[in-house]
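Sequence only, no structure available. Ideas?
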Amino acid sequence: MRSGNTMNSQVQRIALCVVAVLCLALGACATKSSEPYAANRAYRVGGMEVGTVTHVGETLLTEEYGHENVLGGAAVGGVAGAVATGGNPLGLVGGAALGAYAGDYVTEKTVRYKALTITVAMDNGDLVTVVQEEDDVYLPGDRVRILYERDRAQVRHM
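Reply:
I predicted one. C-alpha cells follow.
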C-alpha cells in the first residue's frame, strides 16, 4: 500500500516539474508590444503614393503560431488528469489530450482579428489592393495615401 502512495507522489513531483519547466519556457517566448512600429522598422526608407478608395471589404487576419500552447495544455491537462485519477495512466493520457485540444483552441481564437481589404485607384493609374488591420473607417471615394516599405503597404487617410 505504501509503495502505491510513493509512486503517486513521484508521478506528481515529476509532473509538477514538467509543468514548471514548460510554464517558464512559454513565458520566456511571450512578447507583447503596443508600439505602432517595431524597432527594427525605424530608419528604413519607404515611399508614399496617393489615390482614391474604390472598394472596402472585411476579412480576418490570422497570425502564424507555433504549438507552444498545445504542448503547455497537454502538460497541464496530463498533470490534472493524473492527479484527479490518483495517478491512473488513462487519466494522464485523457487529461493531456483534452489539455492539448484546449491549448490549440485558445491559440486559434486569439490570433485572429478583423481586417480590411482596401482597393485604391492610384493617381498614376495603377489599381492597388492592401489588406490591413481594421484601424480606421475607409469608404469608397476617400482620398488616401499608401505608405510602403519593401513588400509591405499601409493605407492612411490624407
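The chain has two domains: 1-32+65-110, 35-64+113-158.
Hope that gets you unstuck.
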